[in-house]
Design goal:
- The structure holds 2 protein chains of 2 kinds.
- In chain A, 0% of the residues lie in helices and 54% in strands.
- By secondary structure, chain A is mainly beta.
- The N and C termini of chain A lie far apart (37 Å).
- Chain B is mainly β.
- Classes of the chains: A mainly beta, B mainly beta.
- The A-B interface holds A 6, 8, 32, 34, 36, 41-46, 49, 88, 90, 92, 95-96, 98, 100-107 and B 4, 33, 35, 41-45, 48, 56, 90, 92, 97-101, 103-108.
Amino acid sequence: QKEVEQDPGPLSVPEGAIVSLNCTYSNSAFQYFMWYRQYSRKGPELLMYTYSSGNKEDGRFTAQVDKSSKYISLFIRDSQPSDSATYLCAMSGARGSTLGRLYFGRGTQLTVWP
Amino acid sequence: KAGVTQTPRYLIKTRGQQVTLSCSPISGHRSVSWYQQTPGQGLQFLFEYFSETQRNKGNFPGRFSGRQFSNSRSEMNVSTLELGDSALYLCASSPDPTSNTEAFFGQGTRLTVV
């Protein structure tokens, strides 16, 4: 079993839709939870990160972490064609620990059509 | 501030050859991590370097190796290339190993083995 599971999709939605992206994980020692966006032929770029459980909002993006269920989500409101990309979840353990590196999901390919 | 620079961007090699990829981190960043990205496996961790020392290593065969120089630039080498080594190789830099939430990726080197 991989440490981080993510449905690769693809996911296709109309412009303006609310998008929900999810990951599950197996290691309860993970403390930092991140979402990256990767456009075609580019490297991943960090969208947002959350420490431990809770929600974090940044514009149209909301990240949620439920440590009790080992489940994280990214919501995109009012989705735009420019949001079309692959979204990768990533997580890590305590800084400086052996789990301190990033563990990635496979990524979900999202297409937002006009 | 210049981003993470990976060279070359594209590479075509023949089975059995070896290849060296280069990564120049963001100025001031001393931690460099390498990942292999394939459609089937997603982002898989190769290794992490900090202050010229390998701190962490993923589950890859010994054909994959790396090093870091005193100026924090890093190289990775793959010997005896196999068809399955065809992938996007990504490098990420961060200020230090405890700063995974501040990791920035390069655009990657697309390696094709024929």
